[in-house]
Amino acid sequence: MRRRLFLQTSLTAAAGLSQLTPAIAGNVKPLPDPKPGKLPRWRGFNLLEKFVAGKTGPEPAGPYQERDFEWIANWGFNFVRLPMSYHCWATPDPAHWTELDERVLKEVDQAVDFGKQHKIHVNLNLHRIPGYCVNPPAEPLNLWTDERALEAAVFHWKHLAERYKGRPNREVSFDLINEPNTDEASYVRVVTALVEGIRSVDPDRLIIADGLQYGNHPVPNLADLKLGQSTRGYLPMNVSHYGASWVPALKDAPPPTWPANWMNTTWDADTLRRVEIEPWQKLQKQGVGVHVGEWGCFNKTPHDVALRWMEDQLKLWKSAGWGWALWNFRGSFGILNSDRADVTYEDYNGMKLDAKMLALLRNY
Fold first, then answer.
1. What start and end residues bound the annotated signal peptide (predicted)?
2. Which residue of 21, 147, 232, 260 sits 20 to 30 Å from the alpha carbon of 29, by its own alpha carbon?
3. What are the residues facing 175 on neighbouring strands?
């Protein structure tokens, strides 16, 4: 989509956003029946109410909000990924890893019900699982080497399998471990144990595994397990994470452009195709469905740069037939309350809406 068409689409969408009503949800297509070898082109967002326990995350830990599901559906999307920390419903103390807070888990049940009501697929992900999280603090035991951690991880996934047994795969799926960073043999061993635990309870549940190297590298040795796999869309990092305090390597990086220069490489749409698309297309030939579980651009990247980079990503994924989930919906990567300094926001039910970003997403 060229710049003139993009601007026309943005203005048209912005003019009509305030007219969206729940009646639009009645025109949403029924959710497709997914298969691990061919995942639907789900399009949506990550919702963060269970991302961390307590009040320290992007969203305070608490119930998921039905209005998010309603708005997401009204805007034409059909997918949410729920990256969750087990600390929300269990203690980090290994001695008590299997003691679960039913009150919190019922809030997850409610989110699955919201998805069914609004025709949105709900993908449950353990962002923090007993023994591993990509984010600090480190877990007390190591999932990749400690059998106690693996036993607890299997317990948590078996419990979730029991809760949602009987729910069709078009409504809910499982994403096992967020952004693993270990060797392939250890990862395959752990994933195999988790899959066996889930399938001992619910043999037909749709299961998705993140790629290795923080989700970026496909894992061919998981193909025989009949899983989908989830990739990422954050490259190059100096565009997607410019100004992010949790990425020290970018502390003194100059303001990004698109196309970009990163790690002595010129990054443009062709580079993205070679690095992010083609390796995963080889995996697809092994009968593995692919979905982009996370992607997005932090609010310090200039807005025009962010949108150009996002559009190139979206074009590639649409051409590949892949769906995606933006990180996040509300927050510094999202379309609502992102606090960008260079955006003229619209008011949308008390939220600050990035209408141009929303128009771009809806177009792909």
1. 1-25
2. 232
3. 125, 208
Q: 164 near 172, Cβ under 8 Å?
A: yes
331: left (phi over 0), alpha (psi -120 to 50) or beta: left
The answer to the question of residue 266 being in a domain is yes
Note whether residue 83 is domain-resident. yes
Q: Quick check: 18 pLDDT over 80?
A: no
Please tell me the distance from the alpha carbon of residue 308 to that of residue 242, in angstroms, as a whole number.
Answer: 15
Cα 218 to Cα 341: distance, rounded to the nearest angstrom: 36
Give pLDDT tens digits for 149-167. 999 999 999 999 999 999 9
Structural domain of residue 80, as residue ranges? 37-337
Query: Which pLDDT score is estimated for 12?
Result: 37
In a domain, 139, yes or no: yes
Residue type, 346: E
Q: What is the pTM of this model?
A: 0.91
Decide if 359 is inside a domain.
no
Judge contact between 127 and 83, C-beta under 8 A: yes
Residue 125 has pLDDT above 60, yes or no: yes
> How many domains does the chain divide into?
1
What is the C-alpha radius of gyration for the chain, rounded to an integer number of angstroms?
A: 20
Sign of CA dihedral 262, 293, 229, 178: positive
Structure-block tokens of residue 152? 């607890």
State pLDDT tens for residues 236-278. 999 999 999 999 999 899 999 999 999 999 999 999 999 999 9
Query: Could you report how far apart the first and last alpha carbons of the chain are, in Å?
Result: 10
Q: The tokens of 124 are what?
A: 């449950």
Q: Are 132 and 125 in contact (CB under 8 A)?
A: no
Q: What is the CATH number of the domain that holds 156?
A: 3.20.20.80
